[in-house]
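Continued from yesterday's entry.
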Amino acid sequence: MKYVDEYRDAARVAELAGQIASRVTRPWTLMEVCGGQTHSILRFGLDQLLPTGVELSHGPGCPVCVTSTEAIDRAIALAGLPEVVLCTYADMLRVPGSRTDLYAARADGADVRAIYSPLEAVQIATRSPGREVVLFAVGFETTAPAHALAVLQARAARLPNFSLLASHVLVPPAIEALVSASDNRVQGFLAAGHVCAVMGTEAYEPLCRKYHVPVVVTGFEPVDILQGILQLVTQLEEGRAVVENAYARVVRAEGNPVAVQQVAEVFEVVERHWRGLGPIAESGLGLRPEFARFDAQRRFGCGSAPMREGPGQDARCIAGDVLRGVKRPPSCAAFGSACTPLSPLGAPMVSSEGACAAYFRYRRRAAPESSSGAP
């Protein structure tokens, strides 16, 4: 990532901020969906460069944060089986379930291994024929192709001891859930460039038409984000609502055809329960019936009795409101005191892309915000 204090970027940032201010004639509320963009906004103070009335609301753009308590509880239950090796990403270890987390399960003796690539899980299964290797597969459209490739490689190798606990989520249905909610205040969305680099931009077009809400695809550097905001504000001021690509150096309208084909071969669209948003129709990916033998829920019988969000979660945690963009982390009474990255009460404080973690890192010394409910 380039830094704002580089002369060229600093000049362009100032220019874009000025252009945004010159276009704005009324208040607008915009949402960046990606947690990586949230961290860039807070790190570089981009929200503080915007004119009065242009407000950025942080969305559910962190796959670790939106993975449901139900999914975490399933993963913990599987990890507790003596024959199972559970593989997952390191960020998932501290995400709270209804009673505990995978980090505590590992401390209690479960074989939970942090991996960097889904293909590592395939390699572990190859080297450990006497163990059942379960890959806890979380993520947005960005990670789905690699998980699909892991399943295809396991099938090609005829691995009998590899399975997937699929917990993928899809971005466009989540945006629709947000924009159609009764308390929605967001009038335009910044879409994540890495998601669109994989799956393309076509899925956002029905949203723009149905809800008359503009979507601009952008990247993660300060100049990228401000360019996306400028294009959103321009559309809103002109009364337009279309998909625009402000990240053309990376994103094509059709996405990555090979990745799209692999995901379609292995997965089908299913309902998914999102932390903070609840169940959203057609918002997740599950294994197709022809890959049922790689489905951990079917293999181990952990899918017939779904678990609920439990009372073990701390009542002070407002993670659901943070993920919906209704409140900001500093308005939580536990922020920075009872809830820190070392002792998190909610998922947004755990993940490296979580909004609470971003505020803790970059805005911890700022004056506390009101807990009245306003963002």
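--- second protein ---
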Amino acid sequence: MLMNTFAAFCAGFALNIILGSPKGFLNIENVVPKFTVKLEGLLKRMYKDSAEAHRMAGVILLVITLTVFAVIPGVLLWLIYSASPLLALVIDSFFCWTCFSVMHTRNELDRVSRALASGRPDLARKGLSKLTGSDCSDMNEDEMIKRSVEIAADCGADNAAGTLFYAALFGGIGALVYRTVSVVRRTYSTRSEKSDNFGKAANDLWCFLDFVPAHICALLANFSASVFGFDTENCFPVFKRDRKQLAASNLAPCRCVYAGALGISLTPRSALKDGYISFSSIGDDHHISDCDDIAAANEIMYASVFFTMLLFTAVRLIVTLIIVL
């Protein structure tokens, strides 16, 4: 079974690179948000309208969602492995495939870049709204470029590195567990209502699960940027100075690397303090952002994902051979 889960991990990643992500209800990013929204409505009627009650309901929501999308499929897969290892390998590979969204993100960011380059900001806003799950209709060109760079960085840290790490360890079930937690966290992070307390449990668990993969990916993103000829000398100073400027702390390392390598600032945020509005961001604007920054971020992301895959594959293969032999 160790070799099967390793093969499923490799096959699932290869399918995503070749075919992209599954469509419709076969894609976990499409199914989980719809499920959690309906479940949230049910839990709201059962719990009091308070932050504490919503946080408790969020724990229940996460447990139920993980049970439906990870525990039950995991038990069924284990039973199928006992009866038909070949069929189980196919299903395991599909589980891994549905958890990756690297090719989809890269293609969508390419479309955003082309739309901006051809003077079609309306198409760029539409593409960004689709990628982020939030309204981007009021963004100007500079904001869209920087948001696209953030998406590339976040894809490497979350969609790719986190999923690769747990798929390498546990096959499709590891990928399902991690990706379910990640999608639930993201579903609530794009909203601003007080009911976002429902997402606190998912965010806390995601912060724990993705800490190691996200930092590994940041190191490999720094290496990838240097391979492409970018000046990465400023990446660590930016990371050291700005890593706490982002609420989603696991996404900060990669964003710091991308901001430092490209020479732009990301994640502008305003805060009212002592009657004055102060702004915080990641990185510094050493040049005016343009469409080339999206293309560059896309290539850094793709290369860092490739190196992350190689690293986790090598580690998993060595561990598997040690156990088997």
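Residues 39 and 64 are 9 Å apart (CA to CA). Strands lie at 265-273, 276-283. Will compare against the first tomorrow.
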